[in-house]
Amino acid sequence: MAYKWLVILATILLLHVTYGARIDNQQEDEFLYDTFPEGFMWGTATSAYQIEGAWREDGKGMTNWDFWAHENNGANMANGHNGDVACDSYHKYMEDIDLLKNMGAKSYRFSLSWARIIPTGRIADGINQAGIDHYNRVIDGLVEAGVQPFVTLYHWDLPMPLVQNGAWLNETIVDHFTDYARVVFREYGDRVKFWLSFNEPHVFCPSEWQYAQHDFFQDPPVKPYICAHNIIKSHAKAYRLYDSEFKPSQEGKMGITLNCDWPEPKDLNNATHVEASDRSMHFHYGWWANPLSRGEYPPIMREILDEKSAAEGRNTSRLPTFDAEWTEIINGTLDFFGLNHYFSYYVLPSNGTSTWLDGDANIQQEYDPAWNYTAVGWPVTPFGLRKVITWISKEYGFPPIYVTENGYGSYERDGLDDPERVDYYTNYINQMLKSIKMDGSDVKGYAAWSLIDNLEWVSGYTVRFGVNYVNFTDPNLPRTPKQSAILLKKIFSDNGFPQPSP
Ligand code: PNW
User: Fold this and answer.
1) Could you confirm whether 200 is annotated as catalytic?
2) 79 occurs within a structural domain
């Protein structure tokens, strides 16, 4: 008799779980017709090395990327491509601004080339007025077009003398970065109200091209954690400088751009998978967000890495520690959180085979063959944008968030018709809207990557992320809007997806 009741109870429970899950999925998949909060900052993004060209013009110094592109007979980048000319935006910036204007963009995220402004990276060696003048023209052009400049100080191009000095592994770089930040706040802060210190340190800290050095990586990893430590200090010093000397009169805000994919628990009903997802978020995003907003690395990172380091027979942890003075400096140095997001994957506890960060986090990734993939093999998983934003919001007390990159990469194709990219933007932006409307996230802006097709780093020009097409075989490098640019223009002007009239 008791057995019978148990079966009935179990059936009810099962029905409840399945039905509940189905409702959740429907809620997730159903398109939400609604608009974004007033003043939502729509825009697109680029970075200096990927678009500017003019690699040796007007006194610019050499960088790690100039070196990487030319070293090894050009074999470090696909098809021997390099950024010597790129989209020639150094000269064609007015064309780029016209594209933004035509799209109705309210903001433009671009980066400054440190080596144009301070050619050796060290202020004692001199400032390059021609470089400063260049960005003055760009910023003036944007302001005149009614487009807010959203400026990244560091998007991966490092002056060569600093590279030779150990790059981000040498703590003296903290002062060089702060000196550079002082120059740009002073020169541009009257018109620039949104600053990003770094773009995706998670990507550049473990990358050999960052140090212009092959075979850079060691496992178990030590150097990426040292790089991260110096990045956090550099961000905090620049933030404190801005806060005390510039913010009172210039009234801008400063954040950092952190990339974060979404680690979906492979089995949502398995607690160890859900924990693996949470651990992944603390390692991938919290690694930076936690020290900058709470003064210390995530406790789970501290615990695991201290334990592993001891087991490896080390005297000190591979994860460095901030002393009391630094803890105070770094704590609370984000006016907003920047997020770059492209895709999701499944996570589950590690079977011991994963390396680098996931190895240290005791997790592993899996990719679902049932998902759609972009032409370059990244999953198309719009739900992840909502989940990642909502996770960050809940973990950090619903801070202001700017999505500083999101986009679709395809291999070279000549058409302006890009239906996959149109779908990608429609669905990802809709999920971002759900995170705001249904989960209470405070997302304030969105920048599509990218305004134009450009140099996709070591993939050269073989991968296109632009919503505006660049014809790289025509020496004039003409730009033409793709369907996706036309779609974004509509989303921007509608401020989202208003309910269609019956
Ligand atoms: C970003 N991932 O890099 C960069 O900020 C851009 O400069 C770049 O062009 C863009 O995304 C497209 O790649 C990423 O593997 C590199 O998840 C790798 C990943 C994400 C972003």
Assistant:
1) yes
2) yes
Place of tokens 């984000």: 334
pLDDT digits (tens, 9 = 90+) for 120-178: 999 999 999 999 999 999 999 999 999 999 999 999 999 999 999 999 999 999 999 99
In the predicted model, is pLDDT for residue 307 greater than 90?
A: yes
Residue 491 falls within a domain, yes or no?
yes
Report the CATH number that the domain containing residue 364 is assigned in CATH.
Answer: 3.20.20.80
Q: Which of 340, 356, 373, 374 to mutate to test the pocket of ligand 1 (most atoms within 8 A of CB)?
A: 340
Contact (CB, 8 A) for 238 and 254: yes
**Alpha-carbon distances of 413 from 89, 174, 416, 441, 449, rounded to whole Å:** 22, 42, 8, 37, 18
Q: Quick check: is 339 in a domain?
A: yes
pLDDT value for 414: 62
Measured at the alpha carbon of residue 112, what is the angle toward residues 109 and 118, in degrees to the nearest 5?
165
> Which of 465, 464, 467, 466 has its CA nearest to residue 488?
467
Kindly name the residue from 200, 264, 395, 456 that is annotated as catalytic.
200
Reply yes or no on whether the pLDDT at 352 is more than 90: no
* Per-residue pLDDT tens over the stretch 415-445: 799 999 999 999 999 999 999 999 999 999 9
Tally of structural domains, the chain: 1
Give the CA count within 13 Å in the CB-facing half-sphere of 125.
16
Q: What is the mean pLDDT of residues 228-244?
A: 99
Give a yes or no: residue 502 inside a domain: no
Domain span at residue 401 reads: 2-497
Whether 144 is catalytic: no
Helix spans in 331-413 (H):
356-360, 383-395
